Amino acid sequence: MDSSPSGMLKLLLPKTPSILKTALWHSLSMSPTASKWDLRTAITINIIRDMMGPNSTSTSISEIQRLTTKDPPVKGKVWVSKVELAAAEEDDVRQMLFKAINDMGTGEERWTKPDTRPLEAEWNGYRSDARDDEPEPADLSEQEKYDNMMQETSSKATLLYFHGGSMYLMDPATYRPVTSKLARETGGRVFNVRYRLSPQNPFPAALLDCFTAYLSLLHPPPDAPHAPVPAGEIVLAGDSAGGTCATALLQLLLQVHRSTPAGQIPTVRFHGKDVEIPLPAGIALTSPWIDITRGLPSMEDATLYDYLPPPSTTDHHKLPKCEAWPAEPPRAEFYCETSALMHPLVSPLSAQDWSSSPPVFFSVGEEMHRDEAAVLAQRAVKQGITVVWRDFEAMPHCFAMVLEHIDGAAVHVAEFGKFCREVVEGKTVVTNGEFIQAKSLERRDVDVATGLTKITEEEVEEYMKKGAENIGRKEVRGEDEARSML
Description:
This is Acetyl-hydrolase. The protein has 15 helices and twelve strands.
């Protein structure tokens, strides 16, 4: 998007009345969020809500993707080494994914088999001696940039990072400020993956890319700049829809292990070799989106502090037609066919078996996606999985990325980094939960086994079924509207 002074003025000028109203109500303590937020936060969230709400000017999917997938010049405290790794000649990885989808489903799901493509990603690391506006060094090859990045690492932590963006927008380049901070905090490096976006590439294209990225860390293709990375040094990480990718990949890996005889490590043919597929050291999630049906109560009830529009306000919001949407053949959901919404590799909240999972870190706010994270955390603890839970009072979705100025954002990054360092270093991580108050940042312990949500497993299934039915009704409406136009 246009971040020039004139561009920002053009964006903000029409919102001046709303900004002034927000400032007045906040200053008079008449806003319901005034006791929890500072004025800058209140104005920021108000602007984002206005931009994302159902009354905003409709922009086509193609235009949104064009605006959010730009690759700006690299500058500041980040090393960027771009890679494009050749696709494996064998089809084994792809077929392993397809088998897991079939084995974990009901047989009624419809989905499109994606092709295998070269993997695009970038290595990100912290560049300590750069100014915030300093361009990257000129005339360095991508390998030289990678080597410079490695010289600044102080730990073996490797984050396999999947960016957010509702599966249809954003790009790794957008996340360089985030990944640079995580690299600094962990002392390690980040493999920032450019997975295929929907609706042009529906499920399981993105998951195939994520699986390929994990294997490429473990067993680098001949054209990779990096040496093999042991699984015990890898943490799967992601925010929002990146949490979908991370948890779906973890479930895929668990399924591959479940399908392998006890005591054996599964293998697959990859770039001419039979390679092992061990489990990673951990998984770290920020405001994860793990229920694509959007069915749990917080999607409608937890709107006070969030900026995301609830499903009820977007049901009749029509996007302009473009080459990307509506899809052909038509479907209601960007990411997948309606029949696949509750598949465990589409909505990982549907997955019941998390046994053998490595430790899991959650950072959430009082946001619309909180229920699904809470359900998964409690489910995992009951199955003996180590869970570290950080719950931030009055904070919206992915708050540390949109509210970098608040002290709570630094706490989030510190807690995220601490978890990644500890699981990679082999330190004993025990299940624990904390609720962190807004402004004061005072903490109190919470019981991760029973204190996160009262939603039962039976209720979860019913909520998700209703959510899928609501999305399915949009599909029927869309078909009816299409027929009426003929």
